[in-house]
Amino acid sequence: QVQLVESGGGSVQAGGSLRLSCAASGYTYSRNCLGWFRQAPGKEREWVATFATGDSSTAYAASVKGRFSISQDNAKNTLYLEMNSLKPEDTAMYYCASARPRHYCDNSIRGFDYWGQGTQVTVSS
Q: N or C: which end of the chain has fewer CB within 10 A?
């Protein structure tokens, strides 16, 4: 059974940093797509970043590009999201997601098959 467990959320002031972790278990894919999404109260879930394990390529939403960094520790089966220069508008529940192997990464919600329970990030001004 696939399990994704996020951790590392918290409350920080604007300009601060946080690192989110997502521990994965229950599957082994040689190549697949891993991602982070977020959902603020009253808003739809939105894509944040993707990591393609096949070639370690990354992609970011325009709103976080240059401030966030997605990475993976394959040995630990853990996905990370390093968040710097945080802004109040980054406040949301953050979810990690994993996709079954496909030919390409689909950065939409439908492009991912497994989801964690989320970790809250709150940025105060």
A: N
CA gap 56, 72 in Å, rounded: 8
Strands 92-98 and 114-115: antiparallel
pLDDT of amino acid 51: 96
- Cα separation, 12 vs 100, whole angstroms: 34
Quote the DSSP letter at residue 72: E
Question: DSSP 3-state assignment of 88?
Answer: helix
Instruction: Give the pLDDT means over successive 10-residue stretches in the chain (125 positions).
Output: 95 98 87 95 97 94 98 93 98 97 92 97 97
What is the C-alpha to C-alpha distance for residues 68 and 12, in angstroms, rounded to an integer?
A: 15
